[in-house]
Inverse folding.
């Protein structure tokens, strides 16, 4: 199904949230028409549209669309202090992993758990993160799926937030099919994006959006993050790490997806001329 992408540099996906008011079948068709290589389907998007995963898989094959899955995340926390919440979160995430296999995707992006009790410490929650991630990695490996754990933004309650945390976690996880998702808007604004990328272990997936020091996940070119230099490095090193452009559009319009693709293409055109 994905033979046409073998050796391709920079597989570019559109997050389905760029077209959140559309049916996913429409998203797959529209994004291919725009020139994206495929779609990162948010599992919650599928929960809203109630479409048949088998039919979406067939459509993706017909349109030569690459798919990845963004796992369920809202309302979940597999690092909760409450065992029932932890278990319910694990079971929900397993559904996202199974969906990844069923829809013919290779990768599922998962948000780590977080601190929920005021004044609790990350140290108290790390054992839950390690245990839960290992369970998810085991299940993903069983189904032939790559589990990609996302480094989160520096906000209260998040504690998996930097390359050091990723390095620390990976030393405990026994799996050959786990990697890290780096989100360009989650990198602290005062830190150099390229150096952060180089310091992050086992990056296997990238979420791309612009930002400022106060606003995250802006359309490409509307923030002040040095994304051009970052993309230049990926191009020059012939990176094959998939990139998913992120954003959120609730209205029934394709303009956000179009705008991001046009800006990405402008940057890449300049980069490849140099």
């Amino acid at each position: 199904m994905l033979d046409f992408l073998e050796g391709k540099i920079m597989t570019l996906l559109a997050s389905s949230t760029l077209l959140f008011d559309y049916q996913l079948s429409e998203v797959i068709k529209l994004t291919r028409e725009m020139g994206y290589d495929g779609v990162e389907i948010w599992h919650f998007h599928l929960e809203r549209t109630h479409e048949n995963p088998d039919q979406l898989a067939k459509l993706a094959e017909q349109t030569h669309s690459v798919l990845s899955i963004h796992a369920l995340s809202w309302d979940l926390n597999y690092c909760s202090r409450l065992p029932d919440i932890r278990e319910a979160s694990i079971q929900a995430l397993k559904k996202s992993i199974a969906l990844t296999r069923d829809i013919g995707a290779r990768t599922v992006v998962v948000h780590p758990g977080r601190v929920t009790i005021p004044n609790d410490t990350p140290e108290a929650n790390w054992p839950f993160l390690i245990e839960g991630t290992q369970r998810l990695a085991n299940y993903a490996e069983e189904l032939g799926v790559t589990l990609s754990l996302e480094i989160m933004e520096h906000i209260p309650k998040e504690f998996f937030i930097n390359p050091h945390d990723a390095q620390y976690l990976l030393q405990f996880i026994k799996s050959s099919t786990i990697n890290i998702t780096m989100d360009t808007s989650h990198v602290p604004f005062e830190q150099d994006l390229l150096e952060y990328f180089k310091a992050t272990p086992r990056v296997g997936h990238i979420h791309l959006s612009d930002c400022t020091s106060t606003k995250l996940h802006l359309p490409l070119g509307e923030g002040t993050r040095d994304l051009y230099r970052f993309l230049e490095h990926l191009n020059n090193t012939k990176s094959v790490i998939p990139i998913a452009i992120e954003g959120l559009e609730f209205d029934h319009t394709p303009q956000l997806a179009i705008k991001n693709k046009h800006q990405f293409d402008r940057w890449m055109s300049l980069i490849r001329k140099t």
About this structure: The two ends are 33 Å apart (CA to CA). Confidence is low (pLDDT under 50) at residues 1-5. Residues 46 and 248 are 15 Å apart (CA to CA).
